[in-house]
Amino acid sequence: MEFTIDLQSILMLVLIVLVIAIVLFVLKLVQTMKGINRVIETNEKNINATMDSIPIITKNIEEVTTGINEEMENITGSIESVSNTIDTTTDLVDTLNQEVLQPLLELGALLMTIRDFIPKKKKKKGLFK
After folding, report:
1. How many CB atoms lie within 10 A of CB 47?
2. How do residues 81-121 score in pLDDT, each as one tens digit?
């Protein structure tokens, strides 16, 4: 018994396997598409309700965003006002320090120097002071 394999037989076998694979793929694809259609039909009301609510949700998001932007502008104004108040207070403290406290400290130092030059009375020692 002689068994020979020629190129035509091999190609024929590959073609048969390829056709079977394509048929199986198409069957699986059809089955998957049917499943997707069932899911869509089952959830059609929910999908439509969701699609109907998207414009409302978008409008709400827009209103919230607008409100947040307005509040941020108010907050920015408040922060600038606080910053200006802090700057003014800092300037006032610096002025107070330079024009009032420094001269008082210098006057105190001068008085201490003068006091050091004034002779002190000697305390008497003993029972009768």
Report:
1. 13
2. 888 899 899 988 888 888 888 888 888 888 888 887 787 77
